[in-house]
Write a structure and sequence with these properties.
196 residues, 2 domains, mainly alpha, two-stranded antiparallel sheet, single chain
């Protein structure tokens, strides 16, 4: 897989991406700007925003501008394995950009109750004392510093890869757009975000 090199320059005309389902072409001077446009376009057109949308767009950009990229081996986590802290952070931020809205306190508390006792509420690999600050910052970024009475018991969801203390505040339709049918079937029967 190709990854963008850290550079301060950009291709003439910027980075670009065409959404296959709509044929819509987007471009931006920066990769981050392009990624935001892609997420917003997919959201506006009811196209799922997968947890690895940044990898998808980056791979496309690298196919068009190989001089700005380098080879990088990427290990895809296998189902039912603990997820990495990096993956949890990335997916949680992706959800934030894809959704925008938040549920109310009562709904978040109800969801937190379910997640706190779920067997899929797992500690991401790499989450220890020195990274707790990063986790808190990402969660606060998503929640706007809102909390529930169960936050201290919430870790990461083994199935979707995001921090539970953040995802409990997200609209369920935004979460469901990021879940494939296979992933949905793997969710516990009592999961509040499972499509019925």
């Amino acid at each position: 897989m190709k990854k963008l090199r850290p550079v301060t320059t950009h291709p003439h005309g910027g980075f670009s991406y065409t959404q296959e389902e709509t044929g819509y072409h987007m471009s931006d001077r920066t990769f981050a700007g392009l990624l935001n446009k892609v997420i917003e376009h997919r959201k506006a057109n009811n196209i799922p925003v997968p947890f690895n949308i940044d990898d998808i767009v980056e791979s496309h950009v690298c196919s068009e501008h190989p001089d700005f990229c380098r080879d990088k081996d990427v290990k895809i986590p296998k189902r039912d394995q603990q997820i990495t802290l990096e993956l949890a952070v990335r997916f949680t931020k992706t959800l934030f950009y894809a959704a925008g809205e938040r549920v109310d306190q009562v709904e978040a508390e109800s969801r937190a109750e379910v997640c706190s006792t779920c067997e899929s509420n797992v500690e991401p690999i790499g989450c220890n004392g020195c990274t707790k600050g990063i986790v808190k910052k990402v969660i606060s970024f998503v929640t706007g510093s809102k909390t529930t009475s169960k936050d201290s018991q919430l870790k990461s969801c083994r199935h979707c890869g995001c921090f539970n203390a953040a995802q409990i505040w997200m609209p369920v339709n935004a979460l469901q757009k990021s879940i494939s049918e296979e992933e949905n079937q793997a969710l516990p029967d009592n999961c509040w975000k499972k499509k019925l």
